[in-house]
Amino acid sequence: MSTNWQEIEKKYYMFVVKRQPIVIVKGDGSYVWDDNGKKYIDFTSGWAVNNVGHSNKAISKAISEQANTLLQTSNQFYTVPQLKLAEILVENSCLDKIFICNSGTEANEGAIKLARKFGKKNLNNAHEIITAFNSFHGRTMMSVAATGQPKYQDIFQPIPTGFKHVDYNNLEEIKKSTNDNTVAVMLEPVQGEGGVNIPSKDYLKNVRKWCDDNGILLIFDEVQTGLGRLGKLFGYEVFDVEPDIMTLAKGLGGGVPIGAFLAKEHACAFDPGDHGSTFGGNALTCAAAFASTEYILNEKVVDNVSKMEKYFKEELNLIQKEYEIIDQIRGMGLLWAIQFKSEISADLVSICNDNGLLTNPLRPNAIRLMPPLTVEINEASKAFSILRKSLDKLSN
Ligand SMILES: *Cc1c(COP(=O)(O)O)cnc(C)c1O
User: Which of 292, 350, 353, 388 is deepest in the core (most CB within 10 A)?
Assistant: First the structure.
């Protein structure tokens, strides 16, 4: 007899997310199964988290070995998994130092604190950070304040101050908003939650130059774009622009909760005692994240993303031609949005569910596709035929 988990959720869990009516109990590669044994192709991957696929053996092995060795000791001591993860991330990025925490929002909190300390030390107490409208930086108060979407802010007023929001992909707005009190510009290389918005070719390069000319920091929130999602290990490589500070989370742990912020040497303004975390850099999560990062590097997962990007582009362009109801396709790597001419995304997601494909309702008129980065052509091909079948149902 199966338990009614949806009733139990309704009774006990705070209602903060409109969930899809599916209880997921198992995952393997690009697939998940519900509690009735129904199989789905997963194009949500835990919100761009399961980059190396569900139940990846390299990760489960690392977790199990680490769990049998050491779960946690505080940052009062050195731990090996933390330092192995620090080394692999710094050696494979343009940044020099790392601090490891537990989530994306925490990574951004840390990055913001680091920038403020930098301003105190080097820029005559400058503390203001310029961020973009439609950005998403997380759910803790400072990250909510950084996020350029009033719907996440208004109900929590008063929220922390110190942010100026400008239109994304508009250098002039950043220039106009910069003053003696500005310490940093903080952007996602591609806006994820805000709609999969891709900046024009030179935007980030020009922002970099503006920051250099004004002695202010450039922070990239790569919580969603990092670890291969855009077809390079880090999103900044796609745009050929190096940030001073970069934040990571989502795909970093291959499924376990972990985040990090990295900085170039000149931006490492913290002194002992300025920042910390009980669980940050925890042995278990770091062992998983190290295994995941090593897997991405050794198995050339990023090459698969480039290959699949071409396939997605071709297929989605065809699908757009086939269906009048599609307004626009946006995307890069394995992060894609399909925007419709009307608000059909809830219905479409639901029909796709029934047909065995999980997608993310991004906006009332848009869905997001973000499969594991290990997804193969035959799986994606199946997914696109389910998508077509589901669109057929809505088109007539
Ligand atoms: C998801 C996300 C966050 C927040 O990460 P959490 O782990 O949910 O706190 C921050 N920034 C970006 C770009 C994200 O996509």
Answer: 292
363 three-state secondary structure? strand
Domain C-terminal end among 271, 298, 325: 298
Look up the domain containing 254 and give its range.
Answer: 70-298
Q: What is the reported pTM?
A: 0.97
Which residues are CB-neighbours of 119 under 8 A, at least 6 positions away?
A: 125, 126, 127, 183, 184
What pairing do the DSSP bridges indicate for beta strands 259-263 and 97-101? antiparallel
Render the burial of 162-195: b for 16+ CB within 10 Å, e for the rest. bbbbbebbebebbeeebeeebbbbbbbbbbbbbb
**Which of these is catalytic: 118, 136, 234, 239?**
136
Per-residue pLDDT reduced to its tens digit, 28-70: 999 999 999 999 999 999 999 999 999 999 999 999 999 999 9
For residue 138 and ligand 1, the question of a CB distance below 6 A is answered with yes
Out of 273, 298, 323, pick the residue that ends a domain.
Answer: 298
Ligand 1 near 136 CB (within 6 A): yes
Q: Cβ(107)–Cβ(161) under 8 Å? A: no
In this structure, the residue with its CA closest to atom 5 of ligand 1 is 104
Instruction: Note whether 32 and 120 are same-domain residues.
Output: no
